[in-house]
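User: Quick one: structure for sequence A, then sequence B.

Assistant: Sequence A:
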Amino acid sequence: MASRAVLHIFEDYQASRTKFVQTVAELAMRSQNMEALQNAGAMALLRPLLLDTVPSIQQVKAVVSNEVLPQLVHSLSEQNVNFLCYFCLLFDGTNVLLLIKKRPFFKKQRYHKKAAAFVTRSVAKHTPELAQKVVDAGALEPLVKCLSDASALSEISKHNNELAQAVVNSGVVTYLTSLVQHPDSKLKRQACSALAQIAKHSADLAEVIVEAEIFPKIFTCLKDLDVIVRKNAATLIREIAKHTLELASLIVNASGHAVLVEFVTENTGNTRLPGIMALGYIGAFSDTLALAIIVNQGIAPLKEALSNEEEDYIKAAASWSLGQIGRHTPDHSKALAQAGVFRILIDIFQNEQSSQDLKTKAQKAFKATVQKCTYLPALELLLHVINFICLIFSYKNFVYILLGNRQFMYKSFFNHTFFIEKR
């Protein structure tokens, strides 16, 4: 009897909650009831019911149907703005599009603009389809006007070229490039990130950012006190540099390669990864650009990363970049040989503890650079490495320079042949 009495109390409570939710939903369908519901504190009473596990209670979703939400937006008191943002996110996220369409929502106080932009970002970041819905709903214009959360623009732009182009067409690039010099570190982080997400898709989009005079402003961010600002700035430079010879040349002509070398030297770990890759992209396009990196002492920090970084993926990036820089001519290869890079690359792809990706990149970098090498001291040292790949490329290069230094070649060749036979 006691347990039945207890259950009866809870059944009454559930029935009362269900009736309350249904009644509020019905009343909210009529615009003339909105003010009375607000004054009675309907939103505050509905708030705890949002997380209710009873299916019938979840009919509170009906309160924000397409017909009701615009009325709620206009009638909300200021303390309920953040609640409505949370409400839209709690279910499927797409209801926020109704908020975006109501432009007065973005004209509220700064704190509420931030909440609205946060919701927009949270919806846009998941899939290209949701991001496209945000764009179609007209979110770009109010986001550009307030820029209280530039990361929403970043989340939209990252998915594909079409969405990034839509962001560019909104005219936001000029505003974002000016923000990279803003004193607020968080704003600089978001501005650099958004620009990087735009630039990564195509050379045309990267050129739009360059035309907005991002250079040399972005180079100052590589020396920022905030580590995330530094990393995001390096990421932006990498995304611009990777597309064409012309864009990479613009960076070098603005002395950006020298700043990147300094950035890679002064930072460690994942922070300097985009800088390492940016140097590789720049050096890959031409022997002139690669030589500019060598002249600015760019080999040393890349070698240091290759030797001392703990993570294999960072070592792999350093291997790739060194290979791109050293593969052009004998002079480029000589710079790597004199720095002792060959020996490190050999140790890496012979090390059983190295990841497969690291071994592959180290071996490719070694092949690409040693094929160009005519620096005899380095080649002679390679002859004493008991590794089939090293021997093949070493002997091949000796053949190339046979006529130029016949005596040295014969002496090294026969000495090493005798050494192998004895083994």
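Sequence B:
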Amino acid sequence: MPCLDSLYIDLSHPSSYETAVVDERKEKMEEILINMIGDLCNMIYIFLSSKTIE
């Protein structure tokens, strides 16, 4: 994987999801994010968005 100097990640989710589904999705996204960051090198900026979409 090539090195990147910035990363934009959108962690938003529709608020209409059931709580169990939202929790499961957040947990999966955290796992994916940690694995992805572990594969990157020379990261300067990481931008996260967790705005809820309707």
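The chain has one domain: 6-49. Residues 6-49 form one domain.

User: Thanks, that's what I needed.
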